[in-house]
Amino acid sequence: MGAGKTTIGRLISQSMDKDFYDLDKVIEDNAGADIPWIFEREGEDGFRKRETQALASVAQSDKGDSVLATGGGIVMREENRDILRENALVVYLYASVAQQLYRTSKSNHRPLLQTGDPKATLKKLFEVRDPLYREVATLVIETDSRHPRSVANKVLDAIKRHLKEETTTS
Ligand SMILES: Nc1ncnc2c1ncn2[C@@H]1O[C@H](COP(=O)(O)OP(=O)(O)O)[C@@H](O)[C@H]1O
Ligand SMILES: O=C(O)C1=C[C@@H](OP(=O)(O)O)[C@@H](O)[C@H](O)C1
Ligand SMILES: [Mg+2]
After folding, report:
1. Looking at the CA of 35, which ligand is closest?
2. Rounded mean pLDDT of 103-123?
3. Which of 112, 113, 127, 143 is the pocket-test mutation for ligand 2 (most atoms within 8 Å of CB)?
4. Domain spanning 5-163: which CATH class is it, in words?
5. DSSP character at residue 170
6. Where does ATP bind (predicted)?
7. Is the pLDDT of residue 28 over 80?
8. pTM for this model (two decimals)
9. In angstroms, what is the span from residue 109 Cα to ligand 2's centroid?
10. Ligand 1 neighbour 129 (Cβ under 6 A)
11. How far is the CA of 3 from the centre of ligand 1 (A)?
């Protein structure tokens, strides 16, 4: 949370002239309710079920030609990691816990952080999720000391380099 997935995803989709989806928005549209409401009524489990359904449906309907920003917890389920690996070039936007805390502090739309100690929560989630992101990612991009436009340019360059390497080695 706060790595910049939604912000950077939108920027790179514009630069690449591709459609952009934010999985949280897909979940909200399907549910006709926002994420805090889903967590309140259905708990995290209910949200995760909706998240997997939404990911599977985007992966199935999309021809692999769009940019998808996921929610931060997408790597928690093995099923989701398999879908990502099989259908996408996955970019892990790395942000330190300090940056995550700073960037998420302006919004109260993340139910998991509506606790007395969001820093401790982010730290705990980071310890579990960072290795899972590294396992599933094609590219890892560091975001801490960069503005969104500069992160987006770094992602675009890394994708171009990766695709070029893929064509020269195949
Ligand atoms: N590289 C960055 N540097 C500074 N602020 C950023 C950066 N990336 C995103 N932000 C800001 O942090 C907040 C959270 O970004 P968001 O894209 O919603 O993250 P995520 O979708 O990963 O939770 C937003 O206010 C956004 O403008
Ligand atoms: O990390 C998580 O478990 C979550 C991250 C959120 O998305 P962002 O990572 O875009 O904030 C959203 O999916 C939900 O609040 C749960
Ligand atoms: Mg987001």
Report:
1. 2
2. 96
3. 112
4. alpha beta
5. -
6. 2-7, 110, 146
7. yes
8. 0.97
9. 9
10. no
11. 6
